[in-house]
Amino acid sequence: MEGILFALVPMFAWGSIGFVSNKIGGKPSQQTFGMTLGALLFALVVWLVVRPEMSMKLWIFGILGGIIWSVGQTGQFHAMQYMGVSVANPLSSGSQLVLGSLIGVLVFHEWTKPIQFVVGTIALLLLIVGFYFSSKQDETNAASNQLHDFSKGFRALTYSTTGYVMYAVLFNNIMRFDVLSVILPMAVGMVLGAAMFMSFKVSFDQYVIKNSVVGLLWGVGNIFMLLAASKAGLAIAFSFSQLGAIISIVGGILFLGETKTKKEMRWVITGILCFIVGAILLGIVKS
Question: Could you tell me where the beta strands, DSSP code E, fall in the chain?
């Protein structure tokens, strides 16, 4: 029970990032830079408390991973701007899960047993169906659609997903570091990457400073993800963390005023149910 409670923290923390940052406001570059400053502050505190051993290899790959992460996060903020949080976040999470799983299977041969292929395939299909319904738009909701630019949103999601999946593959399949050790180099890379998107013309305006709170959410989610994995196992921790997209959908509707027609709400509920089952099944396959 304790492990499940721990697993709920990254679900809410990471799921809240999108709508909290968009509620604060700012351009995607400001949102990303502010978030990375908060993450760097969190990482410094962790380093001061834990004092892990730091090698040159860890610093190099940690900074590289952080820069790659910033590509994913900046793209996600752009997608939210163009599509809305309640649409962009589930699409982003879904595309990461599907693409990441396919790379894991095809490149790194993570599935070896027939049952893994059966359950994993069902999980991926459920995720695809879930994210299709959660982002499906009602043509009669013209007022909402006029505010969105889905073509730009999908382009942003493309490079966002590429960045996030490269980041995940780097730390999960190519290099394996203790999270508490690599979090500081990674945060440094995140700040550098975010600064690159601002052409190094960084400013510490109100939007940047306020968005640093979002970086703290990111850090708290990471710590509790570790605690959940140690108490309840990686399958539970992974499954619950991926359900943060549900928080994004609800948060976008409740706190950002993203309107949904009755038909869209039915689609969203269908998508959420498919998403929950798919993420849990994928977590079981990974265990």
Answer: none
